[in-house]
Amino acid sequence: MAKYLLLKHYRGGPAAVHDVPMDQWTPAEISAHMQYMRDFAARLEATGEFVDGQALAPEGTFVRYDGPGRPPVTDGPFAETKDLIAGWMVIDVDSYDRAVELAGELSAAPGAGGKPIHEWLELRPFLSEPPTITE
Amino acid sequence: MDETLLRNLTPSVLGILVRRGIDFAAAEDAVQDALVEAVRVWPVDPPRDPLGWLTTVAWRRFLDAARADAARRRREDLVDEEPAPGPAPTVDDTLALYFLCAHPSLTASSAVALTLRAVGGLTTRQIAHAYLVPEATMAQRISRAKRTVSGLRFDRPGDVATVLRVLYLVFNEGYSGDMDLAAEAIRLTRQLAAAIDHPEVAGLLALMLLHHARRAARTAPDGTLVPLAEQDRSRWDTRLIAEGVEILQAALARDQLGEFQAQAAIAALHADAPTAAETDWVQIVEWYDELVRLTDNPVVRLNRAVAVGEADGPRAGLRALAALDDTLPRYTAVAAYLHERDGDLATAARRYAEAARQAPNLAERDHLTRQAARLNALGRR
């Protein structure tokens, strides 16, 4: 088994094929999209491949250490930041091919006009524990 | 096997042990052991006096543990003989436990966890599930909280307001995970109301019951939020509403108004309206004025602006809103709503979309995105 992170970006990746902001969809289209996402997660739970899924607020803060006895420095949010993560799903699957297959399914979630969005999802393998048997 | 009975008895047993002078953490361990024993023994040999049984077993467990501890540390003089039976449990024992678990030296999240564990009798696993954190994390949070309160004496009554804040927090986060924290908060507040005669305890209980009554109508089958005005009022729980109103009226009659009574009064006015259009917004604004006087909370002022918008028209609401800080949570959502009521659909759609980007949770984000989408779709027609 191998764990993968499926990253959804607000921006930063290539534009989706069917790229319409959600507030321009109809309420029914939004419902269909949400249902698709819920069904997808439920199906992965049923197959024993779902680990975690979370959504993030679009804006965050950058923080860094500023020396002993001083409060941390904060900066942002930066309107010009290129890459913006919207959320993720962690899956635990048998192979890279299966991870790609699932990412493809998730990218087919319906959007405006009920058509698949074809949005780009980033697939990142987790760095795992070293194997016990090495020779 | 009556699990509810066991959980109802937990705080009394724990309270008795702590009042006998046992360190809180040790008392809690002993009570947990006694509960496990009860689950094993009671189905075949039910006790005549469940509380006495639990207290005796917990006390013995504590003595065993203390003796083992003493032997380990070669300190045989720690606890030697069983003392005379303690006093019968009083409501003070339960009450003292509430105060201890909500002690001001605890952070809010620690107080919540400790209250659910020690007063509520929930397992660490259940609490961890409810707050969506790993069990080990919750176990640490609880044991740190126990250490914090362990040295405290609680012969003086605490401030009931601290306990109410903790119970309010439990109720308000009550719908995540598979543990029903809202129902648990109501159970604990009922128990508190039975132990102490205080109008704000009654006010909080009424507030919880009135909100809980609307629960089934709050979400659509697909999980989306249904705003108050659009809820199917026939799905409100009239029994809970009647109980909440009765408790509230008795509390208000004592003429010691507090913020929870005022909030409950607003909830009661909503519950009282057969349709959204028949809501008594004028009276609701008056209650918000009371709340502003009592708390001077900016979020209360924001909610007041919504009520003003209903009572005196959206322009009046927008004027009330203009006086507030626009970085307040949900400010933009309120602005969007008032603009929509005022007929400015383009501005409303823009502000709904903006509010969706700022939303603190997914359900609200989806709801606000849908509102923007609905108005944008109208605009395209």
From TrEMBL, chain A:
<feature type="domain" description="YCII-related">
    <location>
        <begin position="24"/>
        <end position="106"/>
    </location>
</feature>
<dbReference type="Pfam" id="PF03795">
    <property type="entry name" value="YCII"/>
</dbReference>
<dbReference type="InterPro" id="IPR005545">
    <property type="entry name" value="YCII"/>
</dbReference>
<protein>
    <submittedName>
        <fullName>YciI family protein</fullName>
    </submittedName>
</protein>
<dbReference type="InterPro" id="IPR011008">
    <property type="entry name" value="Dimeric_a/b-barrel"/>
</dbReference>
<comment type="similarity">
    <text>Belongs to the YciI family.</text>
</comment>
TrEMBL record, chain B:
<dbReference type="InterPro" id="IPR013249">
    <property type="entry name" value="RNA_pol_sigma70_r4_t2"/>
</dbReference>
<dbReference type="Pfam" id="PF08281">
    <property type="entry name" value="Sigma70_r4_2"/>
</dbReference>
<feature type="domain" description="RNA polymerase sigma-70 region 2">
    <location>
        <begin position="7"/>
        <end position="69"/>
    </location>
</feature>
<dbReference type="InterPro" id="IPR013324">
    <property type="entry name" value="RNA_pol_sigma_r3/r4-like"/>
</dbReference>
<feature type="domain" description="RNA polymerase sigma factor 70 region 4 type 2">
    <location>
        <begin position="98"/>
        <end position="148"/>
    </location>
</feature>
<comment type="similarity">
    <text>Belongs to the sigma-70 factor family. ECF subfamily.</text>
</comment>
<dbReference type="Pfam" id="PF20239">
    <property type="entry name" value="DUF6596"/>
</dbReference>
<dbReference type="InterPro" id="IPR046531">
    <property type="entry name" value="DUF6596"/>
</dbReference>
<keyword id="KW-0805">Transcription regulation</keyword>
<feature type="domain" description="DUF6596">
    <location>
        <begin position="161"/>
        <end position="251"/>
    </location>
</feature>
<keyword id="KW-0731">Sigma factor</keyword>
<dbReference type="InterPro" id="IPR013325">
    <property type="entry name" value="RNA_pol_sigma_r2"/>
</dbReference>
<dbReference type="InterPro" id="IPR036388">
    <property type="entry name" value="WH-like_DNA-bd_sf"/>
</dbReference>
<protein>
    <submittedName>
        <fullName>RNA polymerase sigma factor</fullName>
    </submittedName>
</protein>
<dbReference type="InterPro" id="IPR007627">
    <property type="entry name" value="RNA_pol_sigma70_r2"/>
</dbReference>
<dbReference type="Pfam" id="PF04542">
    <property type="entry name" value="Sigma70_r2"/>
</dbReference>
<keyword id="KW-0804">Transcription</keyword>
